[in-house]
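User: Hi! I'm working on a homework problem where we have to compare a predicted structure to a textbook description. Could you give me the structure for the chain below?
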Amino acid sequence: MELNLKNYTTTLTKELLKLAGKNTIRECDEVEKGYYVAYVDEGAESFDVSITLLKNGEIKDALCDCTNNQHFCRHKAALLMHIAGEKKVKKTVTVRAKVSKSEPLLDDAALHELKDWIRNVLQKNADLELAFIHHFTAKHRQFTPEEITKTTQDAVKAVVKNKKNLDPTLLKKIIDLWTELHAPIVAQYQTDAINESQFLNFHTLLECCLAINESLITSGIKITGYVDALLKKCVETISDIYDETGWAIATGYFVEQILDKRKIRLHYLQHLQNIISISTEARRNLLIDRIISQYSKTRNDTVDYTSAYTKLVFDIAVQYSMFEKYYAVFKPIEWSNSYNEKLIESLIEIKQYKLAENYCLKQIAGNYKEEYNIPYLIFLKGIYTISKNENGLADVLKQLFPYTFNFDDYLYIFTRMEDEVQKKKWRTKILSRARSSSRSYNAAAAAFCFRLADHEKKYTKMIEYIDGYTGYHLILTYFESMALTDKTLLIRALLNKTDEYGWGSSTAEREKDKETFPKLYQKMLEYYTIDYLKATLKQAQNNYSYRYSGSFVNYMKEFMGVNS
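Assistant: Happy to help. Predicted structure tokens:
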């Protein structure tokens, strides 16, 4: 279930919500519809947090600059609580003045006095002076990239002055000043997004902001959030371009700027992804073609290839059914199992079995732990089953079996072995491993042991397998065969059985076991009389080894009224 404004109180843990409630929210801004940015204070520390909500209240994205590895930390939870109306922003209560005290003074001030006062204030406040100059000169100006860079940098200098470290308050002042200074530049781009010079100005603005973010000593996300917000403002600007040629030109500017020497601008790719999401099918396919075409060329270049770039382009191709057209472009990424598994799965879906097989084998060859091979062996099992490669399938099943304990796979491997001595050794090895794994709460291993005993008709041995780790549903499944073989040995095993539920077992397994008790009891009555069961239970109570019997024995005692 996706986290949203309605279910967060039940989805997030009480402990997390309690910790979140101790935080203080400051300066929460809805930068644009559904995109919230705020400072979250925890004691003396302050964190930059942002949350993006979909129209239905579902959380699309959430970021925090804390070092907590949780998917949803307490700072994100605190902001979510605030947005949902559960937490109020800490701020000073202000009383609305009936009349501004400055109004009559402004009315009475002589023009030369007012100018002198403003001149004095501007000389002492560089940031105000910059905003003043821009306000009275920028409305109809045509900017150059050099001017935009200088203005953006000057704004930072005006706010920061000689300080080396930036606190959240200074960062907010920079963003506020940028918002005013950049407004006419952004507006000019939005008015004429097809114009290359206007795009270059917008691009310069974004690049300068990100370069400053890298140079400043801050771990906040305010500046990157500001850049993302500007890009989001321009998604509909491009989408609304009626002319197809113009639309292709406007989007093409961003495509061409995704790569720059060894730099990858993932924020531009994400911007294009947002444009794709609201485009017509024809426009969408055209833009995806251009993105993947450029991506494929870079594989032979000297670009510093980041996995994030590959994953983003791959996700776009899969999401919009373009993977089959471009499957050969995408390669596995070392140490990225999630992506690699999705890539191989997608190849199998379009019946590119040979390529999927090659990728699986390469990943297996590069892994240093056998357990990392499991998903790739499962893929190979499916590929070899489809292609009817019996030798390949047998080899894969042999490697996979110690992790799955699939009985049908065991039979497939066992029947293909020709050497009887080899068969016996392998069976003994596998059974020993299954018994050991069953004592580590591996339900599949326990089920295999019982099914093998049933296959070989060794029901006395099956009774011996009953221990504290054996699920009651397994006992019920094979109860009749065990009872027909030796019902005295079976009742002794049940009385001796304890319940070993450890960290490896789940609540579902315990509940599944309890559900079998009525049926298992009825089975008991088919082979034992009530008087015999009562007498056996009473006799067992005097035996020390039976005092710690499992839950089923206690169920029988309670049902039959046998006192403990």
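For your comparison, note the following. Confidence is low (pLDDT under 50) at residues 87-99. Residues 24 and 369 are 45 Å apart (CA to CA). Good luck with the assignment!
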